[in-house]
Specification:
about 65% helix; about 0% strand; single chain; mainly alpha
């Protein structure tokens, strides 16, 4: 890895997050932030490796930094909704969901990420409706449906999930990830 590349460190952090090596991901993510204190990618990915093992406050702090350095980029808003959903802050999650609904009238908002928002809140019908939109839009975030830790179990356990996986074109596996 390029030792002075914030982007390379950010990408390595997300790879470690998917591999569930949260401690090494945290180390690499913090290095990304040390290299560039205004790195959106560094803050975003370091937030993820904090949140997954349950370091919610640290993750929320990182997300807030990513919101500041990115002018409230929608991916960080989604991350904060996820963190709020995990910590039971339904009011905060709903406020941010409303923000994204308003923004979607004037900018593209990932339908797959909207599907996650509704899955986190327990509204699987809306979640699957947004997954259908994501399929129609060919939203590239659909590729994360089987591997990213912010995809909750409730849609994976729904009867509609196997058909979605088949339509996306993922090969069959002997286990779910």
């Amino acid at each position: 890895m390029e030792p002075f590349s914030t982007i390379a460190h950010g990408i390595q952090t997300v790879i470690l997050w998917v591999a569930r090596d949260f401690e090494e991901g945290l180390r690499i993510g913090n290095t990304a932030i040390d290299l560039d204190a205004n790195s959106y990618l560094g803050y975003k990915m370091t937030a993820l490796v904090n949140i997954s093992p349950g370091r919610y406050q640290e993750g929320i702090e990182m997300i807030r930094h990513s919101l500041d350095v990115s002018s409230r980029f929608q991916w960080s808003v989604f991350d904060l909704i996820w963190a709020y959903s995990l910590t039971g802050n339904r009011e905060g999650a709903q406020e941010l969901t409303n923000e994204l609904d308003e923004r979607s009238a004037k900018e593209y908002v990932s339908p797959f990420n909207k599907a996650l928002v509704y899955a986190w809140s327990g509204d699987l019908d809306k979640s699957f409706a947004y997954i259908e939109t994501a399929i129609s839009d060919r939203d590239p975030m659909l590729l994360t449906i089987k591997s990213w830790h912010n995809v909750p179990d409730n849609p994976k356990n729904d009867y509609r999930h196997p058909k979605i996986i088949e339509r996306i074109g993922f090969p069959e596996t002997s286990h779910q990830t």
